[in-house]
Amino acid sequence: MSSGTGSRVVVTGATGNVGTSVVRLLSEDPEVGSVLGLARRIPEWSPAKTEWAAVDLASDQADLTGHFAGADAVVHLAWAFQPTHDPARTWRTNVLGSIRVFEAVAAAGVPALVHASSVGAYSPGPKDHAVDESWPTHGWPDAAYCREKAYLERALDTFERDHPGIRVVRMRPAFLFKRESASEQRRIFGGRFLPGPAARPDLLPFLPDIPGLRVQALHTDDAANAYRLAVRSEDARGPFNLAAEPPVDAGLLGEMFGARPVRLPRTAARSAIAAAWGLRLLPASPHLFDAVLRLPLMDCTRARAELGWHPVHTATEVLEEFLLGLQQGAGADTEPLRGRKVG
Hints:
This protein is of the alpha/beta class. It has eleven helices and 13 strands.
């Protein structure tokens, strides 16, 4: 499926939060000749130079090698966050499915693999200063998301050793948001019946200030641009941290919402989340909450210097856009991103 000129890029997980931004930017790049988006369900959305194929990475029957044949790069984004109560199921998709992707990249002779790792792959680290890509990637073992991301880092270590001719890039972005992902992320982390219009600053008399709750955010389009730059580069290899400034904590959120931060013990917050998760009222697990409190802040110097990457949006702008999307039930024309205010 080549347009005759430019590179051919295959994107897995092409209809989700990151995938839609990556596909759009690649389709707009004059150096990209064609894009093949792989997803479980083919969307109505049809950007220029893009074709689609229905693929379920959890199935060992998927013909990934055939889809990758002739590609100049594979961008691997596919990931299942749910169900958190069934980690064996997410393991099949996220870990075993990713290993199938890696093996197919080698079998098809694709010269470049750009893999979506995460800040969640990092071992616990500091909140008062940023760490670079040399920080250990052993994750937080109690959280399935972090276990899976860290395991794939080790799988890629072996893959790079066995296939030195394939250029492997590992993107480690912070938490990614955009307006169009608001409904999807509300469903994934807050639950189907959490009303988006309730995300209003005037309904928050105070904000819980939990020790360790200091993280980084990034606009999904800014992350997608880093993926695009990595695809186009012939020299980019290894890991790249991706995050915007400033770090997000109760003080910043208090200024945004006009609400007063109130100190809340970590144990109290975790107990509430654990109770809601145990009753299946909240999809986000207390184990992921534990991990978030321990994630390090990331230094993004390498991405700026080697990829020429600079985020366009500040973390504050990202959160403001996302909050508006929550209130409006924003979405997009793909099954994962369908927009709904509640239900």
